[in-house]
Structures are given as structure tokens and as C-alpha cells.
Amino acid sequence: MLLHLHPIRKVFLMAAQGFNPGISLTKKYAKFMHFQRFSTHKDPFGIQSQKSKLADHQQKLMKRGLPKRSSIPNVENIIVVASGKGGVGKSTTAVNLAVAMSKVDGQGEVGLLDMDVFGPSIPRMMNLSASPELDKDDNMIPLTNYGIQCMSMGFLVEEKAAVVWRGPMVMSAVQRLLLRTAWGHLKYLVLDLPPGTGDTQLSISQLVAVTGAVIVSTPQDIALLDARRGAEMFRKVQIPVLGLVENMSVFCCPKCGHQEHIFGKDGVHKMAKELGVDLLGDVPLNLEIRQGADKGQPITVSNPDSPQATSYRNIATKGTVHCLQWLGHGRTKLSSLQ
Hints:
The chain has helices spanning 7-16, 21-24, 27-33, 51-64, 90-105, 122-125, 167-179, 199-207, 221-236, 267-275, 287-295, 299-302, 307-327, and strands at 75-82, 110-114, 143-145, 148-152, 186-192, 212-217, 241-252, 259-260, 279-285. The chain is of the alpha/beta class. Strands 1, 2, 3, 4, 5, 6, 7, 8 and 9 form a 9-stranded mixed sheet that branches.
């Protein structure tokens, strides 16, 4: 079965099954992944049995400190799109935000990186399914559609395949996606994060210099609880929160025009005031947005003049250009908007 797969897919699938890719694959792809076996302990948490050894180990870790944040080659700004809870439309927002940013700034220099290893959505939403090639330095070359450079774990495994990996393997994949992708020159790289405040979010905050975070939530109280935790996490790791997006804010009946606030009203508005951050915009609960995501045709592409696409462009304008100028990031050369 593995003989017919793309070489990069072989590496990921064999690693998921417990193999060391460096043993059975070519030197080229083994060097690319460079997976290492991790030592095992009787205790699954790897706790030393002797107190003296544990103390020495802790001292060594404390001396290391946090890893130094680095920049991604050819990328000027990194914007993460996050949510505390799954199912609030974060990936749909990230995709349409990336497309809208390329239109607003007028340069088309935008990339989209899917950081959800277990549930990648970008391949379907951006209508991409090919496997990435490697350049001369064994970096993955992103796939492009709608003028957006894209990279995702979904390009490396079959669409219906389950990624069943432990934490160290997931973190290795996250690092490869972040640091071993050969981006063309990008003004903005949008990272679609997995939901929650776990290892992936922490690793990203420690590995690369993130310009700012956009947090997506519905107005529902349960979703807002987790969105607040997400905002607090970014503040703890010193990543500016550019603002909040209220997704599925209202449903408008296409026949009679009646508006119904299915998930509550203005919940994200209130939380933005409490947190002291900007509300970047509202996106309604709309059938055309959902259909476009399933078909791989974002509404900012399929119907750019619609009110929904206009909402995403307004969020892109306020969330990237205006907020970045307000934050005063000197490395950013922003286009002036008329």
C-alpha cells in the first residue's frame, strides 16, 4: 500500500504507524522529516524515579529558557486565526479572510497555513488536493489557488485518513509545516489554528514572531467562555489580540427577511468591550457561505459583491491594515487605502 503513495505522505503515514522514516526511506526524505525516537519510561509522563535526578533535570530545563522566536523566510507578518471552541466557523473565516486580504491590499501576497494536524479543512475549502513538491533544500512548495499560497497537513495524508499521533509526533509536524515550507514573498501569512489553547498554540507562540491574533466566536455564551480563554492565552504569551469576529451573528430568512438571533445577540460585542479589544466585524449565518466552503469556492471568490463577502473585506481592512498601523509594527510596509 505504501509503495504507491507520494514520498512525503509515506513519511507521515509510516511515522504514524511507529516506523522511523530514516531507516526505510531515501536519504532525501529522511532528512526532510528527521523524526527522532523518543525515550520511553515506565511512567508515561517520563517522571524520574529519583528525586536528585529530577532536580538536576529541572535545573537544566530552567537554564534553557524559552526558545527564541524566529521569523519565517519571505514572510512579513503572521496573523493567527483562533477560536476557543470548535464548530464556530474559524476555518471558514480564515479562508475568506485570506482571500479578502489579498483583494484589500491589492498585492495578492497572502499565504494560508492550516495548523490543524488532526482535522485539516483548508484543502477542501480551497479546492486543492495535490501533494506538495520539495525544493532543492527539501522544503515543501505550497500549492496555490485563488492567488493564495496554501500548505496543510491535508496535502500529506488521504482526505479520509485519520491522523493518530502522540504529542511529540504532532509537534514535529507542526514545526515542519511552520519552518520547512518554501513560501514566496508574503505580506501576510494567515495561520488557521486548531481550536483550544493546547500544545500547537503554545509551540507556535514560542517558535515564530506572531504579529497578532484574530479570535472567532459565535455570540453563544458557551462559545464565549472558550473565546475568552483564548484571548487570555494570547496575552500570556505576549501576542497582541487584533480583535474579535462575531460569526453566525444573525440568520435572515431568505423568503420573508425576518431576522433571528439563533445563537444569541451581541455576545461578542459585549466581550470585546470587556476585554478592551476591537470588534472587527459580524458575519451572518448564511447558506451561501456554507455551500461555498463545501464546494471549495469561498464566498469572497464565488460572490465577491455579496453582503457576506463585504463583511469579510471589512474585517480584513480593519483587522490587518488599520490594526497593524495602530500597533506600529515597524517591519510592516502597509499600502495606503483610499
